[in-house]
Each structure stands twice: as structure tokens, then as C-alpha cells.
Specification:
The protein starts with 9 loop residues before the first strand and ends in a 10-residue tail after the last helix. By secondary structure, the chain is α/β, with parallel strands linked by helices. The strands form two sheets. An eight-stranded parallel barrel has the order 1-2-3-4-5-6-7-8, surrounded by four helices. It is built from twelve helices and ten strands. The chain binds coenzyme A and magnesium ion (MG). Magnesium ion binds next to α7. InterPro entries: Aldolase/citrate-lyase_domain, Citrate_lyase_beta/mcl1/mcl2, Pyrv/PenolPyrv_kinase-like_dom, Pyrv_kinase-like_dom_sf. Pfam families: HpcH_HpaI. Keywords: Lyase, Magnesium, Metal-binding. GO terms for molecular function: lyase activity; magnesium ion binding.
């Protein structure tokens, strides 16, 4: 298991039946696009969405973004068609919604092996991002995350989760505190990325910032988005604050000056190995490109 060969803070959903949106989607600076065949597409549009997505992948999407494809789930009866009709080279990963068991991932691996052979792609190269968005999925999250080497992360979907439990979705989010934390812990235990679900109110930037901050505090390093305007605030929310970076620099410098072992004191506080590891991680994240501007 490993996270993908990428750092993904923002994964922008683009409805698979919207060639106009797909053509422009590479401009917005999202780390990845998720071309959607599932709940972002009305049932009567799904067959056409497969054709649109296949055509876009064959032609190549301007800006050469990393492309994920969200297929319909294992229980939908639509998954085989989605794979046959929409999967094309250029699909970095499949997003598997409403995942409840590790067996679903294992079955998807078998389908992918056949597709990769058919399309003359290197075997095993296509990754899988299972979405945990129901009670059964939460209970199985650790097994799902560890089910296959293709798994690059676990995504938590709060909207479907609350629908599954029949509970209200509140701004405070007490109803998702446990599953959201559990999915992050399961992802980290397997060494894969924790990806938070969408923030639906796409005009509410302050709310998005707070929501992303809450996800980050639980160990999430990426978030699914539904609108281009969400890219900038999400990248900013995942970026370490200047004071945090400065402190991390001091911690790493003091630790190295002390010979790289033992305990040192920085700003009056004890610094030992876990603190240094956190500081090094902060510096690694901070050295990534800053908030992206819109690409032309
Ligand atoms: N991907 C790519 N482009 C998008 C986009 C998306 N998810 N959402 C909006 N845009 C584009 C629009 O096409 C528009 O482009 P244009 O100005 O060049 O014509 C621009 O961004 C501004 O869009 P705006 O008018 O503010 O939004 P809208 O009212 O057209 O669309 C939504 C609002 C929510 C319908 C739209 O953002 C959307 O479809 N999001 C994805 C929803 C989805 O996939 N849900 C399933 C996963 S949960
Ligand atoms: Mg969902």
C-alpha cells in the first residue's frame, strides 16, 4: 500500500456528461480531476457520460491534469459498463464510491488487470481510491485501505454517510466526528492518503476554509471539490501557516545542531523525535508550490 505518486490536496469533480466543463477543467489548478459517472450524473445521462469521458480521455484533456474516474459502485449494476465504455489510458485512478468491503476492491483489481492488458498499459499502474460513505464502510475502513496495493487513499463521504444513518447533516458536524476520524486513522494505518469529501455550499468560502481546517486537524491531506472557486481556499487551508513553518525550521535546525539525536529545547518546549518528525513533514509540505494561480 502506498499513497499515489502525487500530492493531491484538491480533487475537483467534473460531471462526466459535461464535455464543456471537462474541456476547461484543467485550467483551475486543481491537483486532480475526478470525471464523474456516479451521483453527479442523472440516470438517463449515464450512458452518454461514458461516451463523453472516453472521448475526452482519448483526445487528451487540455492542461494534462491527473485524471480520476468515478465509476458507479459495486452494487449499482453499472460498474462493468462504466469500465468497458469509459475507462481509457490516461485514467490515473478509479474512484470507487459507496465501498463497503475489501472484496469490492479485490474484484475491481481483477477488472482493472484485464483492462490494462486490453489497453496495453503496465499492469497494476491504475490506482484505486475507495470512498467510505456508509456505516458498513466505516466499520471495514481499515480492511478496505489495506485490501490491495492499488489503493492510494481512502475518501470519506459525509453526505451519503448521514443519509445512510438517517441523521441530520449539521454545520457543527457532531454526526460525522467519529466516522471522519475513523477513516483518516484507517488510511494512515495502511500508509495511504486520507481524502475528505465535498463541502456542498460552494459560495461559502469561510465555511469551506473551516471545514478543510477541521479535516486537516484529523489527518486529511486532500479534499474533494465541486467548484473551481474552491481550489484556492483548499490549497491555502492545507498549507502550513508561516509561523508554523518558521518554528519547524528552528526545531529541525536545533535537532541537527545537537547531532541529530536525543532531546533539545526550542522556544522553552521539549523537542524529541516525534516533534522533529512533525516539523520535517511541515517543511516538506511547505516546500510544495504555493497556492496555484489559474492556469492558462
Ligand atoms: N468542474 C469544472 N468546471 C466547473 C465546475 C466543475 N465542477 N463547476 C463549475 N465549473 C465552471 C462552469 O462551467 C463555469 O465555467 P464558465 O464560466 O467558463 O462557463 C464556471 O466554472 C463558473 O461556474 P458557476 O456559474 O459559478 O457554477 P454553475 O452554476 O455553472 O455550477 C454546479 C454549479 C454546482 C452545478 C457545478 O459547480 C457542478 O456541476 N459541480 C460538480 C457537481 C458534482 O460533480 N457533483 C457530484 C459529486 S458530489
Ligand atoms: Mg457519495
Amino acid at each position: 500500500m502506498s499513497s499515489g505518486p502525487w500530492v493531491l490536496r484538491s480533487l475537483l469533480f467534473v460531471p462526466g456528461n459535461r464535455p464543456d466543463m471537462i474541456a476547461k477543467a484543467g485550467r483551475y489548478g486543481a491537483d486532480a480531476l475526478i470525471l464523474d459517472l456516479e451521483d453527479g450524473v442523472a440516470p438517463e445521462e449515464k450512458a452518454r457520460a461514458c461516451q463523453v469521458v472516453a472521448g475526452a480521455l482519448e483526445a487528451g484533456i487540455p492542461g494534462s491534469p491527473i485524471v480520476f474516474l468515478r465509476v458507479n459502485g459495486s452494487g449499482s449494476g453499472l460498474l462493468a459498463r462504466d469500465l468497458r465504455e469509459a475507462f481509457r489510458p490516461g485514467t490515473a485512478a478509479l474512484c470507487l464510491p459507496k465501498c463497503e468491503t475489501p472484496e469490492e476492491v479485490v474484484m475491481l483489481d481483477a477488472s482493472l488487470r484485464a483492462l490494462e492488458f486490453q489497453h496495453r498499459l503496465p499492469g497494476g499502474g491504475t490506482r484505486i481510491l475507495p470512498m467510505v460513505e456508509g456505516a458498513r464502510g466505516v466499520v471495514q475502513a481499515a480492511a478496505i485501505a489495506a485490501s490491495h496495493a492499488r489503493v492510494c487513499g481512502l475518501a470519506f463521504g459525509a453526505e451519503d454517510y448521514t443519509a445512510d444513518l438517517g441523521v441530520r447533516r449539521t454545520r457543527q458536524g457532531a454526526e460525522i466526528a467519529y466516522p471522519r476520524a475513523a477513516v483518516s486513522v484507517a488510511a494512515h494505518a495502511a500508509g495511504v492518503d486520507a481524502v475528505d469529501g465535498i463541502y456542498a455550499d460552494f459560495r461559502d468560502t469561510d465555511g469551506l476554509r473551516a471545514d478543510t481546517g477541521a479535516a486537516r486537524a484529523l489527518g486529511y491531506t486532500g479534499k474533494m471539490l465541486i467548484h473551481p472557486a474552491q481550489v484556492g481556499p483548499v490549497h491555502a487551508a492545507f498549507a502550513p501557516e508561516a509561523a508554523e513553518v518558521e518554528q519547524a525550521r528552528r526545531i529541525v535546525a536545533a535537532f541537527e545542531a545537537a547531532g541529530g539525536s536525543g532531546i533539545v529545547v526550542v522556544d522553552g518546549a521539549m523537542v524529541d523525535r516525534p516533534v522533529v518528525l512533525r516539523a520535517q513533514r511541515t517543511l516538506a509540505i511547505a516546500s510544495r508550490p504555493a497556492v496555484d494561480r489559474e492556469r492558462d
